[in-house]
Structure formats: C-alpha cells, structure tokens
Amino acid sequence: MDSQTPPEPLPPVVSPTHPPARRRRWVGSLLALLLLVALGGGAWYLVQRSKSPAPGAGGPGAGAGRPGGGGPGGRAGGGGPASSTVGTAVARQADIPVQLEALGTVTPLANVTVQPQVSGVLTAVLFKEGQMVKKGDVLATIDPQPFENALAQAAGARQRDEAQLAAARVTLQRYQTLLGQDSIARQDVDTQAALVKQLEGTVAIDRANENTAKLNLAWSRITAPVSGRIGLRPVDAGNYISTGSTGGVATITQIAPIDVEFAIPQDRVPEVQERLGQGATLATTAFDRTRTRRLADGSFSTLDNMVDTQTGTVKAKARFTNADGALFPNQFVNLRLLLRTVSSAVVVPVTALRHGPNGDYVYVVTAENTASQRPVTRGESSVDFASITKGLQPGETVVTEGGDRLKDGARVQTTVDRPAGAASGAAAPGGRRGGRRQEGGGGAQGGGARPAEAAAPASPSQAPAAPAAGTAAPAAAPAAATPAPAAAPAATPAKLPTAEQRQRMLDAAKDDPEQLERRKRFLEALDRGDPAALERWQRMAERGGAGGGGERGGEGRRSP
Fold first, then answer.
1. What does the pLDDT look like over 317-363, one tens digit per residue?
2. Are strands 313-320 and 84-90 parallel, antiparallel or unpaired?
3. How deeply is 333 buried, as exposed, middle or buried, from its count of CB atoms within 10 A (0-12, 13-18, 19+)?
4. What is the pLDDT of residue 315?
C-alpha cells in the first residue's frame, strides 16, 4: 500500500441494543400521548359515572318502563342530580318593628351619701344593710344631751334679755311723759330710747341662738334624704362621728324609678328627634346579657347635647319604673328602642336573605321542588326578620338553611320531606301506609305511584307479569283463572316468605344500605308476628296472586 494514500475510515459501530436518539424521542412522545389519553378517558368516565343514576332497590329491571325510575328516594326523577336538603320558610305579611339595639348602663336617679350635720357619739343605728327606706325615715341617732343643754341655755338668755327689754321700754315711756311736762332733759330720753333698741337686738340674737340649738338637736336624729336602697353600713353604734367624715353614716341609691344610659349612632339621631317632635312616646325594653329574659319596659327620656367625637354617638337616657327592682344600679343591659312600626310588610327570616355581586337575593322553592334565585330589594329589618319591598310575594316559600350549597335551578327537598320519605314503608292501622312517597319514587306508570290500598287488582284475563331480574317475589296466594264471584270469600292468611324469597328480597336491595336495613327490619317483624307486618305481607301476597306482580306489586312500589 502506498504510504501517501490515506487509510479508509472505519464503519460506525452501531449497537443492536441501543436505538438511535431520534427513535428514543419518538417512543417517549408516544408513551406520553398514550398516558394523556388514558388520563382524559378516566376523567371522562368518572364524570359520566357521577351523572349516571344510581341502581334502584328493585334491581336493574325495577325501574324499566317507568318514567319515575323507582329508586329509593335519593335521586330526583330516577336519573337527575341528588336533591339538597334545605330549611324553608313562607313569606308572609306582618308588622315589622324598626328598632335600635344598644348596650346600656343602669344609672340611678340619686346616689346620696348621708353625712352627719353635727358631731357626737352614735347612740343607735336604726337601719339594716340593703334595706329599702323612704324619705324622712330615721337612720341613726347622735347623743342629744349636749344639744338639749345648748337649747336650754339659749332659751334662758333670750328670756333674760326679753325682761331687760321690757323694763327699758317702761322707763322710756316714763321719760317721754316727763319730757312732755318739761321735767326732764331730752338727752335722758334719747339715751333710754337707744337702750331699748340695743336690748331688742340682743333678744333677736338670743332667739337665733335658740333656733340654732333646736336645729342641732333635730340633726342629732339622722334621717334619709331620699327613698331608695341602703348600702353596706360604714359605722356602728358607739362611734364618734363628725361633719368631716368621708364615709358618712350610710349610702342610699334610688332605684325606683331608674334610668338606663346608652348611646345612639349619630346617623339615627335625626329620626329620633323627628319622632320626639311629633310627640311620640318611644317604647324601650331592657334585656339581660344573653337577650333571653326581658327585665323591664320603659320609655325614652332624653338626648345629650353633643356628639362624642371618639365614638360618633350621642348619649341618651331611658326611664323605667322598676317597681320590682329587676334593674340594678351600674348593671349592663341590652336596650331595644322602638322607633316605629312598618305595617303589612312582606317579611322573611333574616337567614333567607343573601347578598351577591348584583345585590340581595333569595332562593324561592318552586312547585317542582327546585330552587330559583330571585333578586329582591331589602327594606327595614329587625333582629329576626327582614322586610322585602320588591321581588317577593306573600305565600312564596324561601330557603333559610342550606342555601350555600344551592345554585339556580337546583333540586331541593325540605327537612320535613326527608324523614317522611324514610318512613314511607311503615304501615298504619287499617292497612293505610303512613308517610309520604320519596322523590323520584316512580311515576303513574308502574311501581310507587299509588299507595297499596289505592292499587286496583289486576283483571283475571291479564297475564301475570314476570318479575324482573333480581326483584324479590313473595309467595303469591293462588289466583283463580275465572272471574271473582260477587261476594269474595275472606282472605286466608299468607305464609311467611321462604328462605329463597328472603334472600331475593335482600339481594335486590344490596346496593342501597338504607333500603336493605328496612327490609331486614320488615323480615324480623314478620318473624316476631307483628300484626302490621303480617297484614302488609298479606296484602302483598294478595296483589301478587291477583295481578301476578308479587314483589313488584308491593315491595317494588313501597319498599319496607
């Protein structure tokens, strides 16, 4: 080989176990696509499965040929969405009060600390703690002897000075007679007249001192200045008290009548003033802390003269007679002030009113048991009810509970319908079944449309209907092929269901736990010899023998 000739390149080495990179990318894309398709198909299957109706209690064929479907009361119309259980109320016309709610403080009209007017030793305390007293009642007494002695001294001084005054007046009269005879100097007469006036002043002072002594003696008996309840006693008999004591002898709080001080928002003040200007008496009611017990009824009293800038409210007072003492001073109460009453308003519970992006609305229950969202205009409201000025008529049913789970057009059932449907299989005296039919329990064509006593027996010429697959068929009484005579013989007691019939009945309801439990209780009642259960089984057997329906004639319509 020539040394200048370049060597030929070696062929690329391709591993049979490693595909090219492009092939690996294509396979990965295909797997991802298949995974997405599988996920989409699974989601579609779950959605369709949630929309599909649940199997009925009578098995796959229990609802065949019937528009209602005959399911066990859980689905509306046999195949529609599940009904939501809600609480309802009926809109009605009523008078709705326009009220103000406020937190108030009970304030007494007078709270007096009884102070002694003279100093001395207490000889007696004549009241009990917490006692109700009237104005003028004696509460305590101070030793009166010093004041009696002072009164006697003042009286003696007055009498002495009065005697001197009388003698001076007689002397003055003599001097005036002598002066008329020109037998005495005028200077002596004038001096005697001045002495008389001096003694008259002294007597006036003595009389004032005597009155002061009488007043001090009267003040030695301490009396109640107002009527009310006495508080705790700060002093005892034998203590020395003076006019400068801070605690006093007693504290009296007037509680009948009594006021309640509360605050009114400044926005409602014009309305209150307008009502007061019209001469109206605004009724007020005081409730306890929990708003469950009414304490007292009163009337609005007055407004303060300025707005509190920190709270934006105006202080006000309401007065209560409080004859029974239900209101206690400094007690916190919930006050309700009645401003006016709106007559003949369409009212609903406040729980029925809802607020959305477009304003207030309510859910109205239609005749088809569906919820219809309806916009309304809200008026005045109280604690429990709200008035509707537009959008609702009296007599319409609105949803009060469970509205957060609803939307426009959703099917609903009331809390009254739900337990009634669960007890639809119970038998009442006389063969009449109690309770109501469950929603979607069947239409007029087939099972569940009529109660047992209203179902007419099938004609003998009709061929007996074969029970659907999985449907339990109780033992039917023998039916004659000839028409029944005019006077039908008394029905013979039906036999109890056989083991095969029992098993078929339980298998037919295995997809509905509630229905299965009812059937078990029905079979147990048959075993106990319950008259109502035996009578029902007799009717089911008779219908099965007459019409050939057996289980479909009785259990399929109104399952136990």
1. 999 999 999 999 999 999 999 998 888 899 999 999 998 888 999 99
2. unpaired
3. buried
4. 95
| 20-43 per-position pLDDT tens digit | 566 677 788 888 888 888 888 888
Amino acid occupying residue 435? G
Spatial CA neighbour of 107 closest among 250, 298, 268: 298
- CB distance 154 to 209 below 8 Å: yes
CA distance 89 to 402: 12
State how far the Cα of 264 lies from the Cα of 266, in Å rounded to an integer. Answer: 6
Helix (H) / strand (E) containing 319? strand 313-320
Length of the chain equals 560
DSSP for residue 496: P
Q: How far apart are CA 391 and CA 414, in angstroms?
A: 23
The DSSP code sequence of 280-295 is ---EEEEE-TTS-SEE
Three-class SS of residue 451? coil
Q: Are 553 and 462 in contact (CB under 8 A)?
A: no
DSSP 8-state code for residue 372:
E
Please indicate whether residue 535 or residue 12 has the higher confidence score (pLDDT).
535
Q: What is the 3-state secondary structure (H, E, C) of 429-496?
A: HHHCECCCCCCCCCCCCCCCCCCHHHCCCCCCCCCCCCCCCCCCCCCCCCCCCCCCCCCCCCCCCCCC
Q: Return the closest-CA partner of residue 356 out of 370, 374, 371.
A: 374
Q: What residue ranges in 169-293 does DSSP mark as E strands?
A: 221-223, 228-230, 240-241, 250-253, 258-265, 283-287
**pTM of the complete model beyond 0.70:** no
| C-alpha to C-alpha distance for 416 and 425, rounded to whole angstroms | 16
Q: Does residue 513 sit in helix, strand or coil?
A: helix
CA distances from 429 to 137, 237, 432, 436, 530 (A): 75, 82, 6, 16, 12
